[in-house]
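User:
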Amino acid sequence: MDEVLKRQDSGELKRRLHGRDLIGFGVGIIIGTGIFTLAGVEAKTHAGPSVTLSFVLGAVVAGMAALCYAELASSVPTAGSAYTYAFATLGETFAWIIGWDLLLEFALGAAVVSRGWSGYLANLMGLSPEWFGEDAKVNIGAVVIIAVLTVIAVIGIKESARVTNLLVLVKVAVCVLILAVGVFYIRGENLTPFIPPAQPPTETAGALHQPIVQAALGLEQSVYGIAGMVTAAAVVFFAYTGFEALANLGEETVNPKRDLRVGILGALGVCALLYIGVSLVLTGMVPFAEIDAGAPLADAFDRVGQHWVGALISLGAVTGLTSVMMVELVTIGRIGFAMGRDGLLPKKFGTAHPRWGTPHRMTIAGAVLIATLAAFIPISELADMVSIGALSAMIIVAVAVPVLRKRRPDLERPFTVPFSPYLPIAAALACFYLMLNLDVMTWLRFAAWLLLGLLIYVFYGRKHSRFAEPAGDVSSTDRPM
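Assistant: Predicted structure:
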């Protein structure tokens, strides 16, 4: 454990962030695809008006996981987030798995968002769909925005925070506008029944696209009802996955003991209220079966003749998705930095820029991967993998809390999870239950990614880890804890 806490000795990041910066980063990454797209899509396909309850359920599970993150982040304020926590409690093998998992989550998430950003920009400015949007053979818009944001992320964390905070102000203002205007157009009949009765899907999907819990129990495929609401919660959990990114900024926070918990819990609380309010307004304005899946909020205001609000929503979507990509790039850099510093990835990724104090090599490498995916591959069908990656990481974090308390009861804990170990156990079980409501194909893809990661670890990471013994005995149980 002491070795884990001293990892930053090989290269330190500059402490320049305060609690308000962390809240800005959190809102920046959380408010984005979920509020501008997923709310409408999941209302139409799975939950109806009860998508509001899906966001409530997602917020409750995320809140329990956030408490676990807050304790570990304030106790172990170092780059790497769940990766570092797993290393400190469960050993190197689990740490590698969760680090590899997090790289998938944020890289894939950024690629998805960059393609969505390109489409929104094309609609807003009338750009050619040949180069912008989901139908482009080479999505130039997605590549350009990733390149621009990478430069900002490499120059400095404070500069990244300033850009993110500016974008967050615009985005939150648009969300408030949606609530202030949309509340006058809510119609009670659109919210009745609030939980539509379960029914077979209009287009029967194959067994691989059935929620794994239904497939395991041999149940018939269905949408809406309680099961549909929970399935939607598993999908929209993607919308809450930003708060754990803040735990990666522990080494760059001026007062991590206070600011980390303020940033994590504060950002999650603000975003949960906005999600719940906006989803309620959306489903109250438009019958859920008629919601436009491409631009649900803008279309809703167009339907009631408020075209100026629809235009502002498009502008808010562009700025909102920009801030999401910014924070995801920053997060990928910090996770790779921690793994490179430990030798599990090439050590050049574990060094900071001598002038800017940022993990420039890992940030650039992550950006190249993201831009490649975003340019050529329509990856909307992989969006569920962001949720399954985040949920699995949160299970590790929840388990790490009681384990670390047992192994290091003397460790200073400025913030502690209440009712431990019961709340962390409940958080782990709740995350696993949501994972079971994702489809079989998502689980298969996730398993394939983990298998690839384990192969890399076996043939590279174990041999190059800074904790590997000269004789090659690298059992995770023998690692310094």
